[in-house]
Amino acid sequence: MAVIAPEQEQQELSPKDQRRFDRRQRLSRWDVKYSPYLYISPFFILFALVGLFPLVYTSWVSLHDWNLIGGKGDFVGFENYATVVQQPLFWRGLRNTFSIFLLSSVPQVIIALFLAAMLDANLRAKTFWRMGVLLPYVVMPVAVGMIFNKVFADQSGMANALLEKVGIGPIGWHSDVLASHIAIATMVDFRWTGYNTLILLAAMQAIPQDLYEAAVVDGAARWRQFRSITIPSLRPTLIFVIITSTIGGLQIFDEPRMFDQTGQGGSDRQWMTVTMYLYELGWGAQKSFGRASAVAWILFLIILVIGAINFWLTRRISGTESSESKKGAKR
Amino acid sequence: MSSVGMIEQTAGKGAARYAARRRGNALGVGSNRRGGWVTYTLLTIVLLISFYPIYYTFLLASSDAPTIAQNPIPSLIPGGNFLDNISRVLNSDIKFWQALWNSIVVAVVTSVSVVLFATLAGFSFAKLRFRGRRALLVFVIATMAVPTQLGVVPLFILMSELGWTGKLIAVIVPGMVTAFGVFWMTQYFEESLPYELIEAARVDGCNMIRTFWNVALPAAKPAAAMLALFTFVASWTNFFWPFIVLGSSNPTLPVSLQLLQASYFKDYSLIMAGVVLATIPLILLFIVAGKQLVSGIMAGAVKG
Q1: What region does A47 belong to: left with phi over 0, alpha with psi -120 to 50, or beta?
Q2: Would the CB atoms of B73 and A161 count as touching at under 8 Å?
């Protein structure tokens, strides 16, 4: 099976052996040349088929009268978009999605940062604490939705019972718009805060120790170190965490879907998200794939724009922090 | 620790120890900071918040409907109806056993497939030379930021055309290899598979696929195990697509749980028993492999 044979052996080969040798060498060359592409091809083929193609094709479907049962109908141009944009439900879905997204992601990143800072200390039983914060990650979002649906029940729910003890009147966790958003944001954070904490913790541990030592010499207190060294050093990781939570957060479906037994997003659709609306258009009463696709495409564009804004903002915010720390160092 | 060293030289060992301790408590230095009782107290509270909702689920699952209605804050001692409620879930029409089996099949097949294809691609990206390598890898990473879930409509049309709706294959195929997996394995191979091993295998006459099988795959075991874990959890908890394409006729666990809540919404003891049943497998996995999950997330973060 020698691929690279010593020169002298080659000269002594019979013509037949020579041919066989050539063929083997050619095969080996092909092997070297094309195998790398062959090995990476499953990803690209699958992504093209179930990722890229559906996404592009969504725009095609969105330009048609297209029914779940009846299939493709007439080309209608941007009519689906026009119809969707005129629906108050669409805008309500968008409002709810953004509200839930902000209410979940902002506290989540802040809490995760502080938790990570705590876990970054020299603790006893490190793994135990780390596993502890990660535990909710293994509870499926559907189950989280069902658990918190009960915790936040308007009557005989645990949240209201606890609040009553400290003298806060019953909150309409399901009936009130903002309260329902807070409840759903709580579910999201319950499952994901620990996960993001560990990502940030890992990044914190990669910060060189001498940066802190220099700060201590300069007389920086702990809060100052956290603000001027830790946060700026975490910039790439923060961008990663924020972008992934944006992509996921704007497509949220499971938790709000399970926040009551009908899955419609409340009597007044007070917690119906865009993805829930998409589902309802496509697989609910209307069975309109055209309109569902229009919604999907709009949401896709929104996510792209928000992603870009996020990226820019995160860079700026932690960017000013680090220039501040440079200024601080001069003093 | 340099300033402590200096104190030791100038003011003696006791002063140095004092300075070190003071710095440890008041001006903690990064990871060397000793955790004080405040940290432990706060972390304990966080731990209780993590754990309580799961325990709460068990408490309700062991109770009965009237008790739950009367006591919004359940007693910390479980009731005696747990097994009874479990058997009611098993005998209800949510097809629990079928859903459990489906979830296991989907999660196992997906994990094995992701590990195999991601390892293959990672080996290629990290250790083989070919034109366009860099650009293709960047493309793979960029796809992680694409919200592919929004392509559900055409994906559903595609699955209908193939006659796959309601079949497990419709859930398995789209998840067979992930960008995250490819990226993860590429990183791992770049760091921990020496070129010498590959060269040795090539000189010994191994062709590419044998080199992969005999050298790269065994070397990838730790990273592959972690990737399998994460894929398993993601697959087990996945709801949106299975819900759409499988429906309640051939559900996975999250889909059948949804059905349970839709049909028995008044009886929380039953619903929570269902939640416990669907969650136990992953809790067990967490007990066995939680440590690996933690280090997996942390390893991925540093690279990513």
Answers
A1: alpha
A2: yes
CA B294 distance to own-chain centroid: 9
Q: Are residues B208 and B125 in the same domain?
A: yes
Token pair of B6 as six digits:
């200096």
Using CA atoms, how far apart are residues B79 and B74, in angstroms rounded to an integer? Answer: 10
- Whether residues B139 and B280 share a domain: the answer is yes
* CA of A134 vs chain B CAs: smallest distance (Å): 7
d(CA B287, CA B304): 26
Report the distance separating Cα B72 and Cα B56, nearest Å. 11
Is the distance from CB of B113 to CB of B106 less than 8 angstroms? no
B186: containing domain = 91-303
Asked whether residue B99 falls in the same domain as residue B174, the answer is: yes
**CATH architecture of the domain formed by A79-330:** Orthogonal Bundle (1.10)
Residue A5 sits at the chain B interface (C-beta within 8 Å)? no
ipTM of the complex: 0.86
Measured in angstroms, the CA of B30 and the nearest CA of chain A are apart by: 6
Name the pTM for this structure: 0.87
Residue span(s) of chain A under CATH 1.10.3720.10 come to 79-330
CA angle at residue B169 from B164 to B171, to 5 degrees?
Answer: 100
Q: For the segment B200-241, what is each residue's pLDDT rounded down to a tens digit?
A: 888 888 888 899 999 999 999 989 999 999 999 999 999 999
Residue to mutate among A1, A37, A63, A146, with most B CBs inside 10 A, is A146
Closest CA of chain A from B99, distance in Å? 14
